[in-house]
Amino acid sequence: MLWSVPCALATVLMHIYWGEEKGDRNRELEGIESIWSGYTFVLGFLIVFRSNQAYSRFWESVSLFYTSSGEWLSAFSNLMCFCSRDEAKQEDVEKFRQYVMRLLSLLHCTALQGMCELRDDSMEVIDLGGINKDSLRHLQGSPDRCETVLLWIERLVMEADRDGLLEVSQPILSRAFQELSRGMVGVTNLRKIRDVPFPFPYTQYLSCMLIAHWMLTPVIASQMVLQPWWAACVVFVVSTSYWTLFYIAQEIDQPFGEDPNDLPVVEMQTDFNVKLKHLCHPMSYTVPDFDVVGELKVC
Description:
Pfam families: Bestrophin_2. By secondary structure, the protein is mostly helical.
C-alpha cells in the first residue's frame, strides 16, 4: 500500500493533466509497449526467482532445526534406555538422567540463541541450579556455547559408561553419539543460512528495477489507458503484486527472530523441555507389564 497508492494517484493526476493533449494516443510513446513488456517480464522473473529462493531458505531452516531437535530427543531416549538397572547404582543413574536432561535443554537453548536475533534472548531452561558455577561462567564467555555444551554431554556419557551406569555395548552406545553429532551438523547448516544472506548485488539490482518500475508505470499507464479510474486500478494491482512479493521474500528469508512471521522459538524451547521431562519420567522408560488375557491370537 505504501508504494501502490501513490503510484495510482500519480496515474490519475497524469491522466488528467495530459488527457487533452494526448488525444486517442500519445505518439511520443509509440512502440513503448513492446519495450515495457520486456522490462516487466524480466522484473517479474527476477521477483519470482527471489521469492522462490527465500521460500526454499525458509523451509530448509525449519526442516534442519526440527531434524536437529529430533536427533537430540532420540539420543536422550536411547541414553534413558541404556541406563543400568542395578539397584546399587540407581542413585547415580538418576543423577545421570537428570544431568543429561538439563544439559540437553541447555544445548537446545544455546542453539536457538545462536541463530536468533532477539531483544530478550532469555528462554526457559530446565533448572541449572546444581551445575558448577565456574562451568556456567566459562560457558557464558564461550565463543560458541552450543559446541561447549555438546562436549559436556559427550564427556558425561563417556564417564557414565566408564562407571558402569550404562548397560550397553560400545557399538550400540555410539549411536547416541552419532545422533548428537547429526543434530549439531544440522545447527551448523542453519548457521550457513543465517550468516550467508541472499547476494547483495542481486537484491540491489532488483530494488533499482522496482523503483524504476514504480516511477515509470504511472506515466505509461496514463497515456495508454483511456479511462483514469481504470488506469489507476491497473497500476495499483500491478504495483501491489510486485512489491508484495518482494517484501514477502525479505520477510521469510531469515525465519529466526521475533518478527510476526518468524518461527516461535520461545515456544519451541518450551515444547522441547516438556518432551525431555516426559522422557525422563520413570513410567516413560519402564516397559509396561503384560498378561495374556483369554486365548492368545496370532494376527
